[in-house]
Amino acid sequence: MAVNVLTRAKTKAFQLWIKSIIGEEPAAIEYADHIEIDFTPAQVQKFKDYLHGQVRGSFVPTDKPPPDVQIRFGKVLIPWSIETLAPLLAGSYGLGWLSKALLSKK
Question: pTM, whole model, 2 decimals?
Answer without folding.
Answer: 0.60
